[in-house]
Hints:
This protein is an alpha/beta fold and 1004 residues long. The protein contains 44 helices and 14 strands. Strands 6-8-9-10-7-11 form a six-stranded parallel sheet, sandwiched between helices. A five-stranded parallel sheet has the order 2-1-3-4-5. Strands 12-14-13 form a three-stranded antiparallel sheet. β1, α1 and β2 form a beta-alpha-beta unit.
Amino acid sequence: MTTGSRQDREPAAQQPPQPQRFVISFAGFNRPWAVWIAHRLEEHGHRVALQRWDPQNSPGIDQALDDLARSGSRVLLVLSERYFSAGTHTDEQWNTALRAVTDRHPDRFAAVCLTDAPLPSAVAVLEKTDLWGLDAYEAEYRVLRRLELPTDRIGTETGRRGPRFPNDPPEIWGRVPRRNPRFTGRNDVIGTLREALVEAPPGASTVTLLGLSGVGKTQVATEYAYRFASEYDVVWWVPAEDRPTLRERLADLAPALGLPRGAGSYGEQIRAVLEALRRGNPYGRWLIVFDGCDNPDDLIDLLPSGAGDVIITSRNREWAARHTSLVEVPLYARPESITFIRRRALRLTADEADQLAEALEDYPLALDQTAGWLADSPLPVGDYLVLLQHRMDSRDAVTVSEDYPLPFPTALAILLNNVRENFPDALALLRLFVFFAPGPVPLRLLREFPADDVPEQLAGLINDQIRWNAALNKLVQFSVVRLEYSDLAVEEGGGGLETVQLHRMVHGIVREDLSEGEAEPLARAVRQVLAAADPGRPSDSRLWPRYAELIPHLATSGVLTSSNPRIQNFLLHCLRYLILAGEYRTCLRLSEETDLIWRALLGEDHPKVRELSYQYGEALRNLGLFRRAETLTRARADRLAGERGDRDLETLRATSSYGGVLLCIARFEPAREIFEHCLATYRELLGEDDSTTLAAQNNLAATYRLLGRYQDAYDLDLDTLRRRERVLRTHHISTLSSGIACAMGLRLMGRYHEAQTRQEQGVKINTQVLGLEHPQTLRAEHNLGMCLRRSGDIPGAGLRLRTVWERATRVFGADYPWTLMVASDYATYLREYGDVGEARRISEDVVRGYQSQLGLAHPYSIGTVGNLGLVLRAQGERTAALSLAEQALVGMRGALGDRHPWTLGCALNATGHRNITGRLEDALDLSRETQRTAERVLGPDHPMSLSAQIALAADLRSVREHEEAAKHEDAGIKGLTRTLGAQHVHTISAKQQTRPYWDFEPQP
Length: 1004
């Protein structure tokens, strides 16, 4: 610490310093200090840039600090607790980042400190100097000394008026609320507010902060007053909920300005205040805050003008027409919510804070009071949310604070009571809205309200566009709801289309306030609105955005419990859309709920219950819940076969559904029998070009593919594709699926370049029609990755497979069946061309996932165990690798027999494992058998047959049968050259006498 008197430190005259460049990094909370330091450095002739510290919007603190250094300027950090709590990083993360960045950029960083609170220990490397508790002279001296700048001109002014020293308050500071030490985020809002005030025309610097009750308007205005206090001579706070209080508080400014209060009326005193502010005498830099003015007429004649600034906080959008700029105060962004909650309740983890923020939809008032309650309670967040749901109106479930003294349900209830008492049309419309789900509601649904279904209490409002607009505008005006506009094209359901947004808290309070007699007509009306909006064709992907709009409102409006046949049909269409769009979890949840209701309402054998069961079964199957799917589909198929016989169309549909589940649990032969029977019967009853017949043909082709009958499968797939292109058109989802199947068939037959060409085009069309994250698009991209690998484009394959795996994991989860399939293929790629350690980790996860879902005896579990064996061999664990390879061979023979291609692949791998562990004769015997069987099953030119021939040559060389080995090697290389090309990786490997292997590939 620097010691000695000021006089002792007066330096001798120094040469003018060379101008330097500085970047000052500061937390928004400490802006006054950053601005003052910048001004003082500029007075000394230096160039300064201010950079607000915001790690939430950067890749991380290490990168953010590095970016500061890369500016080329010296960096001065203005440190306080707020600097280190701007994000959610730990002290250890800060210590690591500070040490690293000062090592990389020595002498670039310096720091001043505004607190005596403990800071991360690595702050010591910055050699900070303390500024808290000092006067302006001493603070400037310490800044200059820390930056190694001359100190002979402290306090010098160039005539440019600068900001006030932060420790010196404005000349007049009137009843501004206490600063909230937990104020979080809102930097964008405060920045917009500041910009609007600075850029306003002279005399018109008035901004209204607009937002829902409890969203933090007062907190933003308070923080602005403190953050920019050094810019003003006068800061005066006026409570403005009612005109008498407003006038009294404005009149109180008169004596503070040195104006005689005298015996004059409030009116005379207010006129004197407004005139003094207009003239800027005695103070030209002033800020007046009118807090909570929801009635513009109370204030409009009292608004000051002049060189100062005015901030109004309000819920009333009518201020937009009163010559003020509007700045919206939105709900918290999620990172802001998490940071705020963890400041309020230190015991909560980031995940728990996220859970609370999700439940309360980032509503600041609710977050403050619920986090305050949790701070003093050991109750887990999940249990607390259950408690809160049942005690929403109780003070016992929240903790109020000085910053938010009113419980959030009460704050919202006061606002809603105003609507109830003064605007009956707005109340009626609001009550209708709450039978849609919280969140966006497309207004076109209500504007297309079926005339026969309008509830009596809404008839006049719905049919009168002027009343409708007036009611809606009143709700918007008081920030009860907000309107948003879509930027989608018209054909996608957008084109400027309005949606009304209703917060969950408002939704819950209004809904609970309705009696059953009031609620039922409104709910029934909303159900009719939704059913009238049903596009009617869930298989048409162009209509999926319309269905996506409707799905959130099904449960809230009572669609699931409706006994109306029209509503039930609408629900079935929605479930079918969810299956086709790949939204399996949502479909399963709705199907489970509806199944219980409809069975009780309609009976087990009702056609709609049966129709529901098809969507229910598909959701189970696609999510890997195969045992439940088998139980459901088998019971339905058996019942219909017993009642109607095996040639009835409904029986055939149920039997096909059961067959699809049999494929998933590896009962391939029973599935083949089912699909051959269904296809033959459909052809006879419906004809070869019927879409149902083509679906059966598609199923049979998939079965042949799983049985290793690749040519038979491809012939059927190609015929299905051509017929679907003619019957359903080229962009139908089923046609696109057939295109993927054909490309896969070509790849499995070893026709890699044809497969790649077809699949590249398929990826483009699937992405265009279905979207990037649709399961079928991901399936197409995955198959393209496999085609690229087999064609020899190794870098392209790796990039494609990793991208698909990451997206599948993000969209569906790591244990989703299709994600496991992609992960398995990516792991085999990594084993050969990437990180073998990562390959092992992923392979072990895949084996655990398949064994958990499918059991130990399923071919996918068996095959991925064999893949893991190859990883162990690559890591040098030969004995363990041999054990897994032999286990896979025995298991695959038991599951599928000796002639299945997967069994032959396991045998090919086992020969290699036996060879490198010294079992040379055993390896040779198995190689001969594998090569002969592969040629008979797959043909002599199939890549697996040729690989088996190369492997046989290697085993022959090991026992010194060089002549026979050369014959097989020569034949194998010629075959690979003829089939794949001379430069293909498999051909080159064979020429280099690198032993081939086989990767098991789970199939969709």
